[in-house]
Amino acid sequence: MAENCFHCGQDLSKERVSFDEKVFCCVGCKSVYEILNIHDLGNFYELNKRSGIRPDDENISQFDYLDAPEIFDKVTDFSEGNTSLVTLKIPVIHCSSCIWLLESLQNLNANINYSQVNFTRKTVQISFNQKELKLSELAKFLTNLGYKPVINLETAEKKEESYDKTLLIKWAIAGFAFGNGMFFSYPEYAAEVMGTSDFWFDKYKSLFRFIMFLLATPVVFYSASDYFKSAWFGLKHKIVNIDVPIVLGILMLYGRSIYEVLTDYGAGYFDTLCGLLFFMLMGKLFQKRTYSALSYDRDYKSFYPIAVTKVDFNGKQENILLSELKVGDRIMVRNQEIIPVDAILINGEGNIDNSFITGESASIPKTAGDKIFAGGKQMGSALELEVIKTVNQSYLTQLWNKEAFKKHETGLDTLTNHISKYFTFVILGITLISGIYWIQVDFEKMFQVVAAILIIACPCALALSAPFTFGHVMRILGRNKFYVKDALTIEKISKIGTLVFDKTGTITHQKRADIKYEGAPLQEFDLQNIKSLVKNSNHPLSKALYDFLEIEDGYFPVENFKEIPGKGYEASVRGTIYKIGSSTLVGQESRNLETAVHIGKNDEFLGKFIFKNEYRENLKSLFKRLYGYKIHILSGDNSSEEKMLKTMIPNVEGMAFNQSPEDKLNYIKNLQDSNQKVAMLGDGLNDAGALKQSNIGIAVADDTNSFTPSSDVIMSGEKVVDLHKYLQFSKDAMTIVKMTFAISLFYNVIGVSFAVAGYVSPLFAAILMPISSISVVAFTSAATWYRSIKYFRIKR
């Protein structure tokens, strides 16, 4: 019995290296084994035996060019201080062991901070210390592990193909063979139908059959290669996936056809086999193109059109959509706001937290003229930036979807995988029983029946049900300013039973309020300073106060800006220290139940701006429509408006005031401890912890990009009053998924029944399989469109 390499599983016939009572095919595999064991990563082999990749023994000095500054800047996603971020394409990623090893790189090299694999795109994103580890050394390190990166102009430009060219070529070859195979099969079919014999056909039929064999062979071994690879990797790792029955059907038809030709029994099924793979690959192309369209629509059309503040050279501010930003525009980024584009700092003291990008929470100071990368968060006074690169919304989506911010729960996707797995075993069982029966009844027909069952029963439509439905739902929700992080979020929304609303900025308008001032008269000097200071904060009360102050903004520099969570902030303007926020921040006791912004100057109390909040329109109607949900209200303000809120929300379950960020988080925890599924709606400022703790965190934003990655949904503030529509639409999405499950199972039950009875040919089965996928997509599109009309009046 031939031995295999312990690391990669290759045959040891050419070379044999012994080490640690194990055998390897080369020194490279032995070295990788040593590296893994030295760093206590032996679990790699427990996940999947012989799952390693044999290291490339080519000259790896080819990566030296990566250290050239112009190449480094083009290839890397991000580079700041000692930290760089790069996304590399690794085509040889093929199983769970590969993912596990590539996401454990930080344990193998101390200069790697973290790594994250995207299995479907065969890429790995790596954060590394560029001062200690050159990019070329990182590429060599991966190559020595057996994961050689592919780096070329196409990957450097981060372009995504809208379709798989290789798949298109395979489909074209199958189509060519199918068309020509039918042509060469025609004389034999005609003779069989007419019951006559032709001299010339009899003379050349062996040649025709041999030509059909030549046409079918590349179709089987090239066009169908993805099915063989998928089935092989599944079986290698003790998994029977949905491609196993397909491969069995292909091999049965191919083997039977060769047998018939060699024994002169008949023409075989070569033309049928080519047609079968032609239609199957057409179905796969359709699926990939539809997935690609949904992904493109999410990344570039629907996600994150929250406004950013654009400023002109005279200081005039205007809120515009991110997609409208152009190179050369100037924007304002306030405290705690995400920087949406690569830009140059023009004015202000930058203190950038790049933890969303790098995973490290260290802040980096920036001065005028410095470059700031998209995804950084300003921690301090407002900045004025000049745009040097247009917004890449797919990059912002990537930041939002980062693994570190995900709430790991299982859902329909896992259910679908379980159904598909057991479904495969059921189909193999039906095939075996049917084969035994037809061997006794009609041996020749047994091949047709078995092949038809194996092909027609592919649960592709079943596997497509949830992702296609959720993909369309996410697109429709996005068009209506309700931006969902991922498909699982829709499922979780449908299960929510408790809604917790933060008051300020969520059910109240962020910029509209009835404001009056009480206290010592404010001089023009102080008013100008206060206006320059409040524009640095993205808190709803600060924004409302900025609009209320009618004095011209002098754009005075703000120094030593410091935020005190849940209380306010302080800073120095023109040599004067101001404190703006709650009564406790300025050393006062609030005797009245009121919402107010208190002003302190050089440790002296000046006065306060009293706000009478303006609630969003139609809130009373909204809370009536939310009948059946448990409603809770949280607020960092005092209870001055408790009575009004109880009138507005007669079915309120609970209210809590004077809540700190930690209090809000604990409030959510207590609800969850009583087995409630909680959705939290907040503005993402003092609510970040509560949003992350809740089952669904909905960040409500009007004109800022201050979202928290911990949120599951970003919602436009103007759409809060339509919350019931989004909740009900998510429930409808679950109903549609269940209906598509039923449709796909109906196809399989009817199709398999006819196949078992011997009424379905393999070619017809191959046509029916993509039709079932197309029908699922068509039904999903029609059903979601129909339901969206009811809620959002979408015309198309």
TrEMBL record:
<dbReference type="GO" id="GO:0055070">
    <property type="term" value="P:copper ion homeostasis"/>
</dbReference>
<dbReference type="InterPro" id="IPR008250">
    <property type="entry name" value="ATPase_P-typ_transduc_dom_A_sf"/>
</dbReference>
<feature type="transmembrane region" description="Helical">
    <location>
        <begin position="167"/>
        <end position="186"/>
    </location>
</feature>
<dbReference type="InterPro" id="IPR021993">
    <property type="entry name" value="ATPase-cat-bd"/>
</dbReference>
<feature type="transmembrane region" description="Helical">
    <location>
        <begin position="735"/>
        <end position="757"/>
    </location>
</feature>
<dbReference type="Pfam" id="PF12156">
    <property type="entry name" value="ATPase-cat_bd"/>
</dbReference>
<comment type="similarity">
    <text>Belongs to the cation transport ATPase (P-type) (TC 3.A.3) family. Type IB subfamily.</text>
</comment>
<feature type="transmembrane region" description="Helical">
    <location>
        <begin position="240"/>
        <end position="259"/>
    </location>
</feature>
<dbReference type="InterPro" id="IPR023214">
    <property type="entry name" value="HAD_sf"/>
</dbReference>
<dbReference type="InterPro" id="IPR023299">
    <property type="entry name" value="ATPase_P-typ_cyto_dom_N"/>
</dbReference>
<keyword id="KW-0460">Magnesium</keyword>
<dbReference type="GO" id="GO:0005507">
    <property type="term" value="F:copper ion binding"/>
</dbReference>
<feature type="transmembrane region" description="Helical">
    <location>
        <begin position="265"/>
        <end position="286"/>
    </location>
</feature>
<keyword id="KW-1003">Cell membrane</keyword>
<protein>
    <submittedName>
        <fullName>ATPase</fullName>
    </submittedName>
</protein>
<dbReference type="InterPro" id="IPR023298">
    <property type="entry name" value="ATPase_P-typ_TM_dom_sf"/>
</dbReference>
<keyword id="KW-0479">Metal-binding</keyword>
<dbReference type="GO" id="GO:0016887">
    <property type="term" value="F:ATP hydrolysis activity"/>
</dbReference>
<feature type="transmembrane region" description="Helical">
    <location>
        <begin position="446"/>
        <end position="470"/>
    </location>
</feature>
<dbReference type="Pfam" id="PF00122">
    <property type="entry name" value="E1-E2_ATPase"/>
</dbReference>
<keyword id="KW-0472">Membrane</keyword>
<keyword id="KW-0813">Transport</keyword>
<keyword id="KW-1133">Transmembrane helix</keyword>
<keyword id="KW-0597">Phosphoprotein</keyword>
<keyword id="KW-0406">Ion transport</keyword>
<dbReference type="InterPro" id="IPR036163">
    <property type="entry name" value="HMA_dom_sf"/>
</dbReference>
<dbReference type="InterPro" id="IPR001757">
    <property type="entry name" value="P_typ_ATPase"/>
</dbReference>
<feature type="transmembrane region" description="Helical">
    <location>
        <begin position="763"/>
        <end position="786"/>
    </location>
</feature>
<dbReference type="GO" id="GO:0043682">
    <property type="term" value="F:P-type divalent copper transporter activity"/>
</dbReference>
<dbReference type="InterPro" id="IPR018303">
    <property type="entry name" value="ATPase_P-typ_P_site"/>
</dbReference>
<dbReference type="Pfam" id="PF00702">
    <property type="entry name" value="Hydrolase"/>
</dbReference>
<dbReference type="GO" id="GO:0005524">
    <property type="term" value="F:ATP binding"/>
</dbReference>
<keyword id="KW-0812">Transmembrane</keyword>
<dbReference type="InterPro" id="IPR036412">
    <property type="entry name" value="HAD-like_sf"/>
</dbReference>
<keyword id="KW-1278">Translocase</keyword>
<dbReference type="GO" id="GO:0005886">
    <property type="term" value="C:plasma membrane"/>
</dbReference>
<feature type="domain" description="P-type ATPase A">
    <location>
        <begin position="309"/>
        <end position="400"/>
    </location>
</feature>
<feature type="transmembrane region" description="Helical">
    <location>
        <begin position="206"/>
        <end position="228"/>
    </location>
</feature>
<dbReference type="InterPro" id="IPR059000">
    <property type="entry name" value="ATPase_P-type_domA"/>
</dbReference>
<feature type="transmembrane region" description="Helical">
    <location>
        <begin position="422"/>
        <end position="440"/>
    </location>
</feature>
<feature type="domain" description="Putative metal-binding">
    <location>
        <begin position="4"/>
        <end position="76"/>
    </location>
</feature>
